[in-house]
Amino acid sequence: MTRKKLATVWLDGCSGCHMSFLDMDERLLALADSIELVYSPLVDFKQFPERVDLTLVEGAVSSEDDLKKIRHIRQHTRVLISLGDCAVTANVPSMRNPFGVKAILDAVYQQPDLLNAQVPSEGVPSLLPVARPVHMVVPVDVYVPGCPPSADQIYFVVSELLAERQPDLRRMLRFG
Amino acid sequence: MTNRVLTLQINGQEVSGREDETILEVAREHDIHIPTLCQLEGLSSIGACRLCLVEVANVPKLLTACITPIQEGMEVHTESERLNHYRRLVIEMLFSEGNHICSVCVSNGHCELQNMAQLLGVDHVHLPYRNPQRRVDASHDRFIFDPNRCILCTRCVRVCDEVEGAHTWDLKARGIQSQVMTDLNQPWGDSTSCTSCGKCVHLCPTGALFEKGKSVAEMSKRREFLPYLTIMRGKHR
Questions:
Q1: Which CATH number applies to A4-95+127-162?
Q2: How many structural domains are present in chain B?
Q3: CA B236 – CA B225 distance, rounded (Å)
Q4: Is the full-model pTM beyond 0.90?
Q5: In this predicted model, what pLDDT tens digit does every residue of A101-121 receive, in sequence order?
Q6: Is B119 in the A-facing interface, judged by CB distances under 8 Å?
Q7: Chain A partners within 8 Å of B95 (Cβ)
Q8: Residues 76-95 of B with CB under 8 A from A
Q9: What contacts A27, CB < 8 A, 6 or more positions away?
Q10: Residue A37 main-chain phi, psi, to 5 deg
C-alpha cells in the first residue's frame, strides 16, 4: 500500500489546532502506517512538495506571507482541509478587521510611553488589510470548525479522507 | 367566545388546532420541530429571524410559521432542501453581518445562534464578513451590551415592553444600520426607565447582553421566569 502524503500548515493561528492534532496520541502510530508527513511545523522540511494528498491548514490568512503560502499550497494539494475556527471563520485574528491595520499597529507599537517606539518592518511580512478565512482566498474541500477541533474529530476526518470518503461531520462540529 | 377547531396537514400528518393558533404552535403541540431564533413563548411573535419559514401548498412564497394562523385544509411542509437552503443562508447572514467570535464569547456553548448553526449544518460562511465597527456599552452597573453579537431578534425590546413594562429598549436606524438602543439612544447606565431587572439579559439568545464579571463561556441564561410570569398573569399570546 502506498502511503498518502499529508502536510499541515500554520498560518495566523495559535498552534492550538496542531496541539489537538498531537493529542491524537497513540492513534498517530496507527495513522503513521498509512501517511507520510511531508511538510509541517512539526517536522523540518523547508519546501512544500510538488504533490500532496491532504493538507490541514490552521490559521487565518492575515499577511502577505500567508497569502503566498496558501496559494502555493492549494496548487500542490489534492484535498485542502480548513482546520479550526481561524481557518474557517478567521476567528480571533479577524478581531482587528473593523479597525484597520494602521490603527492596530499604532495601538501596539506607537504608545507614547514606549522607548524608541517603531513599527517592525524588517524580516516580518506586512499585514493584509483584513484577516480572512482560507476559503475566501482559495477553494477549500473540507471544513472542520472548532477552537480547537478535538483530537477525535481530527482523527475521524483524516481517517475518512484516507479511505477516500468525504467526512460528514457537519452536525458534529460547532464554531468556538 | 369559542374558537373553532381546524384540521390541516403538516408533513403529511393530519393535525388539528384552534383557529387562533399559528402553524408553529400547532406543530409544537404535535412534536414537529421547526427551528426558531427570535420567537419565544410568552412574548409576542414578529417573524423577524425568518428561520421558521415553511412551505404551504398553493402559496408561492414561504411563510413564517410563528405568525401565520392555521387554516382549514392547509398543507404545510416544514422540511425541504429549499427550506434548509434558506435557513442556512439566514444563519450565514447573521454571522457575516456582525462580529461573532464564538471562541472568546461569554456565551460560547450556551448560544442559540451557535447551536442553530450546528443543528442546520452550517460549517462555514460563504458570504464575505462585514466587520462593522460597533461600540460596546458597559455603562450599566451590572450588565453589558455588545452590539457586535446582536442579531436583532428584539427579544430584549419585547420583554422590556410587554413583561417588565419599562420599554427601555427599542430599535434605531434602518436596514443594515439597525441596532437596539436604550432610552433615546443614551448610554444604558444613564437610562431613567431601566429597572435593572435583567430580563433582557436572560432572554438574549447570544452574548450581546450579559452580566458583568462573566468570562468566556460563563454566561448561561436563566429563562424560567418567563413561562412563570406568563402563566401567573393568565395571558395567552
A1: 3.40.50.700
A2: 2
A3: 16
A4: yes
A5: 999 999 999 988 888 888 988
A6: yes
A7: 89
A8: 95
A9: A151, A155
A10: -80, 105
